[in-house]
């Protein structure tokens, strides 16, 4: 490729990237302005007089700390539980020969295609009947056992050669030993991928919390910023500050672990 | 097919291997149990109930009443349902091809360079991992018809009558589509990039020797070799497009009027605002059948255009 061509490619890609991050830059800059300054044009990207107190203000106006705590609780418990139960099930589906294995696995992958919208109403009924509506545990129960996690891990476990587990069996390890000492350590990348996917999904989820969590003390960060937006609809700068606070943890996690993200996505795209 | 065959083989095999089978089965169930209980109660049972709910009228407070196919026949006369379906299809028809073209284009450009690939990929990917609620709120402000920076910019370049975006019945769907495409192109770009990297370079070398230009290489090598990726991407995008919800809820609330009402938003409203659980379930099943039909149709046509000879 000639040099000019290369420069054109770079220019196009940089313009595109600027377009991708522009809304975030605008959000960040607006969060440090006064309400009057937010919509000034031409855009003053770096505010002359940054209103850092906006970030203190939002914690005072609305109970963000509780929303944060709830969201962190949910992401940790759901991610932990789904890693634990999915990896066990994936082991059974990939490393143990039993008669109903394929039938059961077919049941799992068959349900992946069913949209959440189909089952959300019956799920709501079930949760209500066991007395868990308006509780964080409702979301734990409906999100921690998704068949997707089992499917993802099972695909990865299949690629671990059976010779390894058979050799371990001859050396006297039982299934549980093979699972914890051989399969899990080898499957770290897949486990990391599932963990990140779950983390991001739970942190960003809106429909689930919207259905289940009604009292303020149970709300998540996504419901919190929606509430903020409706209550303080003209406090543009504060709304932007709240949005920044809501997206920053995920962006940080992503920047640190993006390797697993990208590999996971590429894997799901190629192997499908 | 292979899968189903081996599945039946396994069933017949199972009868003759005694002790080992029963021991394996015990261990397997032990491993499966923690996940299966949750899967059974919160996925399998709900699917069965959902099917049943399609045929009843029920609002939690009054007793359930069996109404046969009434929920489905009612849909034909329900103008909001028709609008929501039409808007969803419009979303799909515009957002899916635009996402595919843009993300493929970006992947091709990104595949041409070496320095800075990781950095640029990160930039493109960030919208995908951030919360839909937060970015929808930001875009709503960007779209603000009177004060928003988008219209300020448009006025500045001489467009005196810029669109009303989310506040206008004509533009609300377009506004949602632009934002949705922006949010997801990074993800599909990464998938396409992986696909491009899987194309063996000797194909391009041979084409160069034969005197092919860049367009010919793209048309006769890149596109055909990418068909498995395109197949995957198109299915994911189509399914996803029929489930569009959060951005509609946050940005327009289905409005102005009913101009941006979509199926999932309508299902949500019917179920959790109006407590029409039967009708909402019936619409959800229609959604499911549409998604299923698209997937089956795609798989049926797969042989015609997808090339797996790598």
From TrEMBL, chain A:
<feature type="transmembrane region" description="Helical">
    <location>
        <begin position="105"/>
        <end position="124"/>
    </location>
</feature>
<keyword id="KW-1003">Cell membrane</keyword>
<protein>
    <submittedName>
        <fullName>Carbohydrate ABC transporter membrane protein 2 (CUT1 family)</fullName>
    </submittedName>
</protein>
<keyword id="KW-1133">Transmembrane helix</keyword>
<keyword id="KW-0472">Membrane</keyword>
<dbReference type="InterPro" id="IPR000515">
    <property type="entry name" value="MetI-like"/>
</dbReference>
<keyword id="KW-0812">Transmembrane</keyword>
<feature type="transmembrane region" description="Helical">
    <location>
        <begin position="72"/>
        <end position="93"/>
    </location>
</feature>
<feature type="domain" description="ABC transmembrane type-1">
    <location>
        <begin position="68"/>
        <end position="257"/>
    </location>
</feature>
<feature type="transmembrane region" description="Helical">
    <location>
        <begin position="136"/>
        <end position="157"/>
    </location>
</feature>
<comment type="similarity">
    <text>Belongs to the binding-protein-dependent transport system permease family.</text>
</comment>
<dbReference type="Pfam" id="PF00528">
    <property type="entry name" value="BPD_transp_1"/>
</dbReference>
<feature type="transmembrane region" description="Helical">
    <location>
        <begin position="178"/>
        <end position="203"/>
    </location>
</feature>
<dbReference type="GO" id="GO:0055085">
    <property type="term" value="P:transmembrane transport"/>
</dbReference>
<dbReference type="GO" id="GO:0005886">
    <property type="term" value="C:plasma membrane"/>
</dbReference>
<feature type="transmembrane region" description="Helical">
    <location>
        <begin position="7"/>
        <end position="28"/>
    </location>
</feature>
<feature type="transmembrane region" description="Helical">
    <location>
        <begin position="236"/>
        <end position="257"/>
    </location>
</feature>
<dbReference type="InterPro" id="IPR035906">
    <property type="entry name" value="MetI-like_sf"/>
</dbReference>
<keyword id="KW-0813">Transport</keyword>
UniProtKB/TrEMBL annotation, chain B:
<keyword id="KW-1003">Cell membrane</keyword>
<dbReference type="Pfam" id="PF00528">
    <property type="entry name" value="BPD_transp_1"/>
</dbReference>
<protein>
    <submittedName>
        <fullName>Carbohydrate ABC transporter membrane protein 1 (CUT1 family)</fullName>
    </submittedName>
</protein>
<dbReference type="InterPro" id="IPR051393">
    <property type="entry name" value="ABC_transporter_permease"/>
</dbReference>
<feature type="transmembrane region" description="Helical">
    <location>
        <begin position="277"/>
        <end position="297"/>
    </location>
</feature>
<keyword id="KW-0813">Transport</keyword>
<dbReference type="InterPro" id="IPR000515">
    <property type="entry name" value="MetI-like"/>
</dbReference>
<feature type="transmembrane region" description="Helical">
    <location>
        <begin position="89"/>
        <end position="110"/>
    </location>
</feature>
<keyword id="KW-0812">Transmembrane</keyword>
<dbReference type="GO" id="GO:0055085">
    <property type="term" value="P:transmembrane transport"/>
</dbReference>
<feature type="transmembrane region" description="Helical">
    <location>
        <begin position="122"/>
        <end position="142"/>
    </location>
</feature>
<comment type="similarity">
    <text>Belongs to the binding-protein-dependent transport system permease family.</text>
</comment>
<keyword id="KW-1133">Transmembrane helix</keyword>
<dbReference type="InterPro" id="IPR035906">
    <property type="entry name" value="MetI-like_sf"/>
</dbReference>
<keyword id="KW-0472">Membrane</keyword>
<feature type="transmembrane region" description="Helical">
    <location>
        <begin position="220"/>
        <end position="242"/>
    </location>
</feature>
<dbReference type="GO" id="GO:0005886">
    <property type="term" value="C:plasma membrane"/>
</dbReference>
<feature type="transmembrane region" description="Helical">
    <location>
        <begin position="29"/>
        <end position="58"/>
    </location>
</feature>
<feature type="domain" description="ABC transmembrane type-1">
    <location>
        <begin position="85"/>
        <end position="298"/>
    </location>
</feature>
């Amino acid at each position: 490729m000639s040099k000019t061509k290369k420069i054109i490619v770079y220019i196009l890609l940089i313009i595109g990237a600027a377009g991708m991050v522009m809304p975030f830059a605008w959000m960040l800059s607006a969060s440090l302005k006064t309400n009057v300054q937010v919509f000034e044009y031409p855009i003053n990207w770096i505010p002359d007089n940054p209103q850092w107190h906006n970030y203190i203000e939002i914690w005072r106006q609305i109970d963000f700390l509780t929303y944060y705590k709830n969201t962190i609780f949910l992401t940790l418990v759901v991610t932990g539980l789904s890693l634990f139960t999915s990896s066990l099930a994936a082991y059974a589906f990939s490393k143990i020969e039993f008669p109903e294995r394929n039938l059961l696995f077919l049941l799992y992958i068959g349900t992946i295609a069913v949209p959440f919208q189909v089952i959300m109403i019956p799920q709501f009924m079930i949760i209500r009947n066991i007395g868990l509506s308006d509780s964080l545990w409702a979301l734990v129960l409906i999100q921690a056992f998704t068949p997707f996690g089992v499917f993802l891990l099972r695909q990865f476990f299949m690629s671990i050669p059976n010779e390894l587990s058979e050799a371990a069996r001859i050396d006297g390890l039982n299934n549980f030993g093979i699972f914890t000492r051989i399969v899990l350590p080898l499957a770290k990348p897949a486990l990391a991928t599932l963990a990140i996917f779950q983390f991001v999904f739970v942190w960003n989820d809106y429909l689930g919390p919207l259905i289940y969590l009604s009292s303020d003390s149970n709300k998540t960060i996504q419901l919190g910023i929606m509430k903020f937006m409706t209550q303080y609809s003209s406090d543009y700068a504060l709304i932007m500050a709240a949005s920044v606070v809501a997206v920053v943890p995920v962006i940080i996690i992503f920047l640190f672990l993006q390797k697993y993200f990208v590999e996971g996505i590429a894997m799901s795209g190629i192997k499908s | 097919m292979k899968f189903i065959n081996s599945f039946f083989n396994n069933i017949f095999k199972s009868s003759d291997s005694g002790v080992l089978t029963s021991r394996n089965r015990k261990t397997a169930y032990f491993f499966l149990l923690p996940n299966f209980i949750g899967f059974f109660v919160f996925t399998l049972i709900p699917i069965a109930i959902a099917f049943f709910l399609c045929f009843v009228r029920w609002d939690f407070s009054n007793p359930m009443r069996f109404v046969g196919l009434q929920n489905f026949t009612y849909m034909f006369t329900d103008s909001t349902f028709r609008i929501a379906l039409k808007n969803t299809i419009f979303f799909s028809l515009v957002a899916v091809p635009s996402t595919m073209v843009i993300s493929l284009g970006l992947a091709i450009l990104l595949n041409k360079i070496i320095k800075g690939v990781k950095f640029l990929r990160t930039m493109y990917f960030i919208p995908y991992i951030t919360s839909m609620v937060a970015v929808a709120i930001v875009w709503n402000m960007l779209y603000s018809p009177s004060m928003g920076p988008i219209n300020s910019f448009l006025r500045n370049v001489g467009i005196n009558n810029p669109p009303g975006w989310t506040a206008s019945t004509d533009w609300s769907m377009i506004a949602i589509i632009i934002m949705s495409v922006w949010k997801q192109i990074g993800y599909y770009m990464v998938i396409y990039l992986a696909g491009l990297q899987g194309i063996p370079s000797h194909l391009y070398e041979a084409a160069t020797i034969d005197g092919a230009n860049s367009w010919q290489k793209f048309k006769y090598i890149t596109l055909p070799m990418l068909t498995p990726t395109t197949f995957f991407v198109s299915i994911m995008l189509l399914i996803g497009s029929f489930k569009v919800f959060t951005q509609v809820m946050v940005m327009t609330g289905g409005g102005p009027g009913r101009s941006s009402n979509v199926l999932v938003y309508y299902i949500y409203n019917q179920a959790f605002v109006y407590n029409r659980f039967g009708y909402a379930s019936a619409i959800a099943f229609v959604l499911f059948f549409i998604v299923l039909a698209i997937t089956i149709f795609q798989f049926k046509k797969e042989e015609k255009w997808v090339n797996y000879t790598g």
